[in-house]
Amino acid sequence: MAADDTLEVFFAAGRAEAPIPSADLLSRIMADAQAQSAAPVIIAPRPGLFANLIESIGGWPTLAGMATAGVFGVWVGFSQPAGLDLVAEQMMGTDNSSYLVDLLPAFGTEFEEG
After folding, report:
1. pLDDT tens per residue across span 58-83
2. Helix (H) or strand (E) holding 83
3. Which of 7, 24, 23 has its CA nearest to residue 15?
């Protein structure tokens, strides 16, 4: 006798005797169904455009970080710290000839040669 045949004996016995629910169980199921059908239906509102936008960028923590970075950028733009002048002078030099530097010397030369 194989293992499947042994299990089949138990399955056949389970199918032969169908369980019948008690009257108490059926009355409780009907009471729950009537209570649920009498309850008011609450429909949740759908999120709006602004809520969808906030969720698409990562939620409120991301929005707070972006706002902080934006405020900091405006603050640095209006009241430039004194240390940035020194850094800019060291990087670019004190003369104003930095606009003469060609940053992409190989770009566009095929059009200039004729």
Report:
1. 999 999 999 999 999 998 888 777 77
2. helix 82-92
3. 7
Residue given tokens 């006798």 in the structure block = 1
How many other CB atoms are there within 10 angstroms of residue 54's CB atom?
14
CB 73 within 8 A of CB 79: no
Task: Check if the beta carbon of residue 92 is closer than 8 Å to that of residue 98.
Answer: yes
Q: b or e along 56-66 (b: 16 or more beta carbons within 10 Å of the residue's beta carbon)?
A: eeeeeeeeeee
**CA torsion 6→8→10→11, rounded to 10°?**
160
CB 28 within 8 A of CB 20: no
In the block, tokens 């930095």 appear at 98
